[in-house]
Amino acid sequence: xxxxxxxxxxxxxxxxxxxxxxxxxxxxxxxxxxxxxxxxxxxxxxxxxxxxxxxxxxxxxxxxxxxxxxxxxxxxxxxxxxxxxxxxxxxxxxxxxxxxxxxxxxxxxxxxxxxxxxxxxxxxxxxxxxxxxxxxxxxxxxxxxxxxxxxxxxxxxxxxxxxxxxxxx
Amino acid sequence: xxxxxxxxxxxxxxxxxxxxxxxxxxxxxxxxxxxxxxxxxxxxxxxxxxxxxxxxxxxxxxxxxxxxxxxxxxxxxxxxxxxxxxxxxxxxxxxxxxxxxxxxxxxxxxxxxxxxxxxxxxxxxxxxxxxxxxxxxxxxxxxxxxxxxxxxxxxxxxxxxxxxxxxxxxxxxxxxxxxxxxxxxxxxxxxxxxxxxxxxxxxxxxxxxxxxxxxxxxxxxxxxxxxxxxxxxxxxxxxxxxxxxxxxxxxxxxxxxxxxxxxxxxxxxxxxxxxxxxxxxxxxxxxxxxxxxxxxxxxxxxxxxxxxxxxxxxxxxxxxxxxxxxxxxxxxxxxxxxxxxxxxxxxxxxxxxxxxxxxxxxxxxxxxxxxxxxxxxxxxxxxxxxxxxxxxxxxxxxxxxxxxxxxxxxxxxxxxxxxxxxxxxxxxxxxxxxxxxxxxxxxxxxxxxxxxxxxxxxxxxxxxxxxxxxx
Lengths: 169, 471
Fold this sequence. Notes:
The complex is a heterodimer.
Chain A: H1 3-23, E1 32-40, E2 43-45, E3 48-52, E4 56-63, E5 68-72, E6 77-81, E7 88-91, E8 101-103, E9 106-109, E10 114-119, E11 132-138, H2 141-165
Parallel strand pairs in A: 1-4, 3-11
Antiparallel strand pairs in A: 1-2, 4-9, 5-6, 5-10, 6-7, 7-8, 10-11
Helix pairs in contact in A: 1-2
Chain B: E1 10-11, H1 12-15, H2 19-23, H3 27-49, H4 58-79, H5 82-86, H6 91-98, E2 110-111, E3 114-115, H7 131-142, H8 144-149, H9 151-171, H10 176-181, H11 183-191, E4 197-201, H12 204-209, H13 214-217, H14 245-249, E5 255-259, H15 271-290, H16 296-302, H17 304-307, H18 310-342, H19 350-358, H20 361-380, H21 383-389, H22 414-441, H23 445-470
Antiparallel strand pairs in B: 1-5, 2-3, 4-5
């Protein structure tokens, strides 16, 4: 086996591990999920939301102390959460000129997979920049592919080291 | 005078027109430090007199978001310890010692041939290591939430470092503070091993036959190495502060600055350095949980002045110290020992094997830190626009950007940068481990068996970070 063939073999191991890791993730039929969330300095509860791709998420959020925000990565919404108010002020970062609308719940379809953070978007205290939660939309192929790729890298390194030390180019 | 640079290296003084001229000007370092010093003092003033809200105060945003990101993700991997050359913290101490801002002075009383002021004591030999820096950094990081979010705490710590540096410059010769005490210097020394530049001599024989030793003793053209290293013997970046004095003082024009491949230095030479690697990777892990994680209870524990959870803080701080100083080194020691056994070399000294394999944590740790730092700048970078217009958080709007809304910069794509960084870190970790095993145990399956436990452990660590970032 020459250098090119070794390279191809290494690439194959890496690629196969990554793709295998991605495909191992199960997928489930979509459903509607109603979630009640609270916000307080400096955490959301629940801290992690786990849903499946295609799920419709209906999110009701209340604040237990001061005004907070809820900015959801990749899903284009940002809500202001006012203590003792049943309403949220919902806006969309992609449409900055539109006025915020008052809603009782945020409704969105989890049409992207992976891990996304929801963050407080309204300065709420000293640790405000670190107030965040996680939305994990299954199947999380990035995690599976990443783990597969890292393990593949380990195997490929062992394979290459053994071949090189035997004097095979 | 000098031959071609070693394979894989490029002599930057030859390749970049004007660079040699610039770096050998006596005013160059001062010209860079001066604006840095002005900014630094302004940040301290803002920290003391400005808004107590972290994201409305320039000291927090510029130091812990912008500077930190540039330091760990740009300066260290690409320009080694360049920060040390322009750092304002030792400015007053060094000025006191030298009684000069630009020129070099000769004569007695002095250090080497340079005339210097102060008690000029030698730093105690027993403390000539980076243990002070290890413990100091761990201590600062134990209170990191206060440091990273409260302007007054940042101002007191940074101001305190200036004070300590100045006092130590008065007592001890040269940059003892930077070499042995500064908590930032410790991790810069570790991760500068990966850096893509190095200061080295062109020709060792020229140095060996040199009787002037200007690089060490100094002279009219410059100061003897302030870091008290012998520049001609440099074989790692760890303790070179890139001050460029040796370029100015070498009588044979034999010192140069070279570009080199990433992660060219791989060998840790003492337990202090190895523990620095353990502490740094543990801190990257703990910070990723505390600051980037979703768990409110952990944040409350790390933030006891606000939450009042002092018991939780004790648990948090105790866990941090136990993990960094005992658990991670213990697991790593076990993996190294298993590797030695698998290689069939049970007579090999464990210290050598342990230190040799510890080098894998240098590229892996650096990449984990960069991956941790990426979301800080991507998510909170827009605060920079606010504080340049209103640095004290007093309602000013100097540049019209004070009310620019908080706008994360494509936060959903952060994972696609973090994952490749972990791959790069693991690749270089595996390469470092295998190279050491090959050198120590010879080639073939013995080397692969020797480094297998450490390689599997490194992969597990990378997978752990991956889970925290995208899982």
